Amino acid sequence: MEQKEIKSLITTIEQHLEDGNYSVIKETLEDLHIGDIAEIVEYVSKEDRVAIFSVLDVDEASEVFEKVNEATRNTLFEELDEHIIVDIIRELPADDAVDVLSELPKEKARQYIRKLIRIEPALTAKIRYLMRYEEDTAGGIMDPVFVAVKADATILEAIEEIRSQEIDEDFFAVYVVDNDGKYLGDVRIRKLFTAPPQTKIKDLIEEDRIYVTVTDDQEHVSNTFSRYDLITVPVVDQENRLVGRITADIILEVAKEEADEDIYAMAGTDPDELENTSVFNAARIRMTWLAPCLLGTAVTATVIFAFKDKLFVGNFSYVFGIAMAFVPMIAAISGNAGLQTSAIIVCGLASGHIAAERLKQVFLREFRIALLVALACGIIGGIICWGLPRIVTFDNAEQAVEISALDIRVTLAFSVAMFSAIIVSTTLGLLLPFSFRKIGIDPAISSGPLVTTANDSISVAIYLSLTLLLVSL
C-alpha cells in the first residue's frame, strides 16, 4: 500500500476510534496486510494502539505485535493488559517469542515465562531452550522446528514421517540424522518426489554439507547464506546434533540489523536509543560518545597551545596566525581520508568479502590510493595555503619580503603535513578495523567520532611540528 493511502487510512481509523466505531475498524483492518496494519499501529497514539489491538483476532495481533518496531512494541508492553500479552506470545513461534521476550528486563521476561508455563508448557520449554543462547548467535535466531528423518528410512517412510509431524511452516529440505540425532546432510524436496519410493534417504544426501553451529555469530550466518545462495541452513550443537534451522527471511532481518548497527557505530551512537521514545535516553546515549570526543578535542587544543610559545614570537606571530587558519583543513581532509578507508574496510569485513580479510593485499591497494590522494591534496592545499595570504597587505616593503619568505616555508610545511597526515590517517583507518576485529570489538567503532578525534590531534601535531621545523631553518 502506498504511503498516501496509509496516511489517509490512518486519518479514517482515528476518526472511527474517536466515534467509537470499533466494528467498522475491525472490518477495515481485516482487508489489510499485516505489514500495513503494523505501520498504522506505529503511526497512531498509544491509546489508539490499544484500541486497535482490542479489535484484532489474537493470531493477527501476534503477527502485528512481532512486526512493529521495537520502540512501538515497548509501548505496547506498557499499555496492553498482561493477559493479552500472554495470549499474543502463545501465538508466536518459539524463536519469535524469544526475540520479543529478550527486549524486556530479565525479571519481567521471567514473569511472562512463569505465566506461559502453566498454559503452554511445550512452547515454554522451547523458549527456555532458545534463551540459553546469545541473541546475536545462530542459536539465538534459529527456529527449533524442522523436519528430520533417519538415514536408513526409505522415501516412502520419510514422507509418512513428514505427514505425522503436522508442521505448518514452510520447509525446503528434509534433514537427515543418525540414531543419535547427529546431522548427516539434507535431501531436497524435489528428490523425494522424483526418486523411487523404496530408495534409502541416505543415498540422496547432498554432497555439499553446509551448516552452522549454535555459537556462530549471526553475521557469519548471514555471510554463509550470501556465499552459498541458501534458502535455509541447518543449525547443529557442539556435538553435531541437529537442533534447528535458519531461513532466509530471518537473515534479511539480521542483515538489516547488522547494517543498522554499523551505521550507528560509525555515526557515534547506538541502536539502543530507538528502544524507547525518550529524548533524554537518546541524548544520554549520544553523550556517551560525544563526551570523550570533547576530551579528544581538548587534546588537539593542548597541542596547539604547546606550539604557541614557539611560533608566536616576532614575525612568527604571523606564522602562527596563518598556521591556525589552515588547521581545520588539515584535520578535516585527513580525517575524512581515514574515514573513507575505514568505511571500505568495515563494509568489506561485515559482508565477508574475501579481499577484506587479506590484510597485506588490502594494505598495498589502500596505501597506493592514499599516496595519490595525499599527493593531490598536498599540492592543491599548498596552492590554497600560499594564495590566500596574498590578500593581506603589509605596512612596508621590507615586511612584505620577509613575510613572503615565511609564506613559502609555511606553504611547504602545510603541503608536507597534509601529505603526511593523510598517509597516517589512512593507515589508522586501515589497521584499526582489523585490530578491533582481532580483539573482539565491532570494527565499525573504528570509524566513529573517537577515532576521528584522534586523527585530528595527530594531524595537527604533524602540521605544527613541520611548520616549526621549516620556519626555524
Automatic annotation (TrEMBL):
The keyword Transmembrane applies. CDD domains: CBS_pair_Mg_transporter. Pfam families: CBS, MgtE, MgtE_N. It is found in: Cell membrane; Membrane. Gene3D superfamilies: CBS-domain (3.10.580.10), MgtE N-terminal domain-like (1.25.60.10), SLC41 divalent cation transporters, integral membrane domain (1.10.357.20). The keyword Cell membrane applies. GO terms for molecular function: magnesium ion transmembrane transporter activity; metal ion binding. Homodimer. Belongs to the SLC41A transporter family. This is Magnesium transporter MgtE. It comes from Limihaloglobus sulfuriphilus.
